[in-house]
Specification:
The structure holds three protein chains of three kinds.
Chain A: H1 2-21, H2 25-28, H3 41-44, E1 49-52, E2 57-64, H4 71-88, E3 90-91, E4 94-102, H5 107-118, E5 123-126, H6 132-145, E6 149-151, E7 167-169, H7 174-188, E8 193-198, H8 202-218, E9 221-227, H9 236-243, E10 249-253, H10 256-266, E11 275-277, H11 285-291, E12 299-302, H12 310-323, H13 334-351, E13 353-354, E14 360-363, H14 364-372, E15 377-378, E16 383-384, E17 398-403, E18 406-409
Parallel strand pairs in A: 2-4, 2-5, 6-7, 8-9, 8-10, 10-11
Antiparallel strand pairs in A: 1-14, 3-4, 12-17, 13-14, 15-16, 17-18
Helix pairs in contact in A: 4-13, 5-6, 7-8, 10-11, 13-14
Chain B: H1 5-8, H2 15-43, H3 48-79, H4 86-106, H5 117-120, H6 122-149, H7 158-179, E1 184-185, E2 197-202, E3 205-210, H8 211-233, H9 235-245, H10 247-252, H11 257-282, E4 285-286, H12 292-305, H13 310-331, H14 338-352
Antiparallel strand pairs in B: 1-4, 2-3
Helix pairs in contact in B: 3-8, 3-11, 3-12, 3-13, 4-6, 4-7, 4-11, 4-12, 6-11, 8-9, 8-11, 9-11, 12-13, 13-14
Chain C: H1 2-24, H2 27-39, H3 50-72, H4 77-107, H5 121-127, H6 133-157, H7 161-186, H8 190-211, H9 213-239, H10 248-261, H11 273-292, H12 300-319, H13 324-327, E1 340-341, E2 344-345, H14 349-371, H15 374-384, H16 386-391, H17 396-422, H18 432-445, H19 450-466, H20 474-488, H21 511-518
Antiparallel strand pairs in C: 1-2
Helix pairs in contact in C: 1-3, 1-4, 2-3, 3-4, 3-6, 4-5, 4-6, 8-14, 9-14, 9-17, 9-18, 9-19, 10-11, 10-12, 10-17, 11-17, 14-17, 15-17, 18-19
The chains are: A alpha/beta, B mainly alpha, C mainly alpha.
Chain lengths: 411, 367, 520
Amino acid sequence: MKATKLIVFLLVAALLVTACQNPAAPTAAPAEAAADGVPEICKTDAFGCAVFKPGDVLKIGMGAPMTGGDASYGIDISQGAKVAVQDFGDLNGFKFELVAEDDGGTAEGGAAVANKFASDPAVVAIAGHVYSGATSAAMPIYEKAGLPMLSPSASLPALTTMGSSVFNRIVFTDARQGPPAAEYLFNKLGIRKLAALHDGSDYGKGLAEAVVARFTELGGEVVVTEAITKGETDYTPVLSAVASKGPEAVYFGGYTAEGAVIVNQMKQTGLENVVFFGDDGTYGADFLSRTGANGEGAFATIAPIPADSPEKTAFDAKYLELFGKEAGSLSPYTWNGYDCTAALISAVKSVAVLGDDGSLYVPRGALVTAVRTLTEYKGISGTYSCDATGECNTLPPMFVVVKDGAWVPAP
Amino acid sequence: MNVPLAQKSPPRFGRVQTVLRPLLGAALGLFLFYRLYNVIIVQHEYGPETWTRLLIAGLIIGSVYALIAIGYTLVYGILFMINFAHGEVMMFGAYSTLFVFEAFKAIKVGSDPVLTFSNAYPVLAILIAFVVGMSVSALIGYLLERIAYRPLRKAPRLVPLISAIGASIFLQNAAQLLFSPQLRDVTNPEVLARGSGWSLMVNGSKVILPYTGVFTFVLSLILLAGLYLMVQKTKLGRAMRAVALDKKTAALMGIDVDRTISLTFFISGALAGAAGVMWGIHNGLVYYFVGFIPGIKAFTAAVLGGIGNLPGAMLGGLFLGVIESVGPAALGLDFQLKDVIAFALLIIVLIFRPSGLLGERLAEEKL
Amino acid sequence: MKTLLRKSFANGAVFGAIHIFLVLIGFNTLIGTLLARLTGVKFSGDIPPAGALIVYTALLALLGGWAAARKSKSGSLEKNLAAGAAAGLASGVFALLLSLALGWLLTHKVDFRQYLAYLSFDFIRVTLYQLAPLPGALSALGLFLFGGALGGLLRGLRGVNVVQRFSALLRRVWGKLAEKVNLVLHGRYRLALRVLLFALLAAAVVLLPLKWGSYWNYVTGTVGLYVILGLGLNLIVGLSGQLVLGYIAFFAIGAYTMALLNSPIPHNIMLGFWPAVALGVILAALAGLLLGLPLMRLRGDYLAIVTLGFGEIIRILLKSDMLTDLTGGPRGIQNISGPRLFGVDFNSDIHFTYLILAAALLAGFVYHRLERSRAGRAWLAIREDETVARATGVNTTRYKLLALALGAAFAGLAGAIYASRNQFTGPDEHSLMASINVLSLIIVGGMGNIPGTVLGAFALKGLPEILREFANYRLLTFGALLVLMMLSRPEGLIPTHRPKYPLPSPDQQQKGREEVNDDL
């Protein structure tokens, strides 16, 4: 009987919660009720308008792993995004705010966060999600709610081939950097025997597969393909096995965390004179500090960035001041976090209409289109133009190499 | 003690099982032998230099597992509980190394502008790192018992386990919040620079025997031997064994049970701390999640050797380390599957030896 | 009095250490932010106004004073006050020293964030209540002293005559009320009330999903799935007493069965939802059977680690290169199609909430029947004492296997629905932490009973959602709550009541050994 009482109590509590939430609902409803001052576009827009009274804040949602083993990605990207909100987060007195929610990088968390954002009328756009798994589960929910996404880092190829109208990304994908990397290895460096390693994640594996496919096509020999286990610190066994196959270069698809360990341990396992070739995930200042002299001569492919633009320098300084860490030391996606948030804010600004009643109206359907048709947006880590599927980073990669302890453009 | 008869004789099982088990064993043995023969002799994928490298890596990581596994085994032997937060205790040891070496790196010695304290007095620096790391971890182990486990000593057996899981989550996130989620590298004194070591020539190619690895391995063995002697010879060790055997009788014999249990946690924490310091010195990478995987592995190692059994934990640790490193190559599988091999081996061992390789034994005689 | 003060000082010191820890992880600004938001104070950025932190410090001190006074177990007002004040003073000294150290960092412009991530200058300033270091530190001391004394005083007031009488009155009224309610509940109208209650419940179950929006639907759905998982694991752990740590592997089998049979990539089989659910359940049960068959000889903790290993093996195999063509590898499987029933496509969260509620009810019904069946009694016998159970003619191997297979089937059901609802499943969904969550759920709720499982699922899956306000501190708070819950209610939130008989001999097998050791 006690248990029944408890269940009744829970239900009553739940009813109360719903009852309490109702007052917030009117803001969510299309603004047709308040006929005067409502811009024309809100009546025709497929998803209606988000309405902000003076003093309300516009929320940019972000779903990212903020706790658990991958927290550094979520925390870093959200910190980058916070700087963007500070820089651009003002529209005629209406403030923007970044709401970073923890999705743990998983589908379960991603869907929970997406549902939360979808039921918050003040959320206008989503900078994320950060992980592909969470993004996959979140996408259908945003699709229904008409919330545009711009992911800084979800690189799974299938995400843009599922016909979603809301999903876009500025991350540099496998298809963009894998084949050119293989060509560079084969043609420029004259490598004929390649070892392909990846970290077992969808990102690293996709890249390694793209490189292997193109490299074989060119006539090179892939002597060994191995996956490592993410998050470990001793890869000497797998590197020893790789060494016995006598490769001339090691391609690694993955991130700095493991990439730096691999570069260091290559010197102990008979791979001293073998070229290390990484991706945009192994690029960054952190790689240099963690590999030291061992890192000399390591390659990486990156999205073409304007070499140290004043905006980037300003961002790096601001990030260091606010968070006490070098930008890029927590994850390679700091700048992407900044860029995708800034791009979303600029898209919101381009479609928002100030009503006669002093409220701000953001037509949701128009915003989805605005993000999808983003053209020549100049960010600090690249220039972005989204194509019809939502790929916004479509330029060919740039090759860089570590020389005298610094990343320089490769010859 | 009135031991029921049924316990002395192994439990009887269905006829199917008695027939199946040897058959299964024979089939598995044949398959493994065939596979090993095929990969090592027929295909001859790897030369002796590779095998040497694999073995070295395996023994080093195995010795760290052994050191952590001892902590699980000590606690299990006495309280019959799995101290799930043990890996996190080790993580704090690793963080201590990081900070001690960072501090010594910052201290300059004499007029030489580049000579730092850690390079000028490397032995002292390493010693201090061990003292700090072991004390921090020992303290955390001790507090863990006082706060999260002691009040639960009479609770059903799963309750302390959940409490330990909660503590593990708490400690992990506390470290993440305190020190930020950044991955950090430990800068060793130059005498123990990571990556350098003695060169051996095996089959015409150079195999490096890293200083840090040898240091880790030797020190682990010394600590383990010391602990074994302590448990066998000292008064405290006798008290621990007595408490493990029977708390009530031990209390009647004048042993302070609470104090003994506290000390057990203190010691197992200190050993985990030492493992953490060695982790910092040998692997170099420190972050808040660093204790999780070794913790699980060490737990596996403890069970593999026979939980509650000190030499068993050590054997289990080394065995697990070597299997992880040599196993994939020997079986001709992807290295990604090394944990699959390790866990499958665990299952196979337990099918044929249900209480681990060496059996359970902390006290001389089990109930 | 002297020992009282000494003890209170020690208690205060513990609180001081907690205070330092909370400041170093930035918890004070979090609470400050929540307080400010609650009272509607506007502020910009992440740093709350100093006033909120003053309130936070005072509240913490109040708690410390109260705790110290409570530990003193004294009835008199003065002693309580003294204990509270002493505790406040002790923790105040800690706070003072911390504030001075932080102030030193501030005045010397030392950026310490490389080591302790939260110590930015803005943070230090607000921790010092936007004052200069020395006044800030002194006001911290003052606040602790004041708060501690107040806490002691409040505690001491319980001893004052007037308050005592008042609380006695309250208790009496409450008791009368409860009695009346009880009378009504168990009296003449019992049946009618029950019917009403269940009608209310049914109405709520039917109406709520329509009403409360997609987010709460999603959370309810997740809780419902974890109820199914919890019931399944309860069959294994709670009823038959086998500790299984890799339970999520069976969930993964269900989820992947659904995903592989109902997604265009990689196999494009598109079998449909219902056969896939059935297949998922069967496959999961088979996996449980196969895993259990050779392992029935193993004792508690060995079984735990073996099943943990099994869970990891499944996860690693799912994401391995070797099986990528079959399972989609680390990418997981997208675009899983939903069920279709009576010509309606399940695509909204409301549909899935109903589906999950129905599945949870079914699981609850099956569990209820099993618990009271012959098998249920056999499981109980095995859990209490396997040797005796065997001696009395229970085929322990068969019943243990049955529990494992049935528990696995529950997980397979939950997994299949889960994959279909999220339209996605990947290998990292099925990590060790997920298994641990399910295990925690049944123990937090109270092992072996349905209401406990439901409550545990709410606590374990609902609580983190509620704790979202705590942002980065979510899991930290969760871990701490898990420990606290175990300390305060080791039997779980809703303990299972069973008649207990005194045992003639203390020497039972296995479980008995711990009891022997524990009943000191």
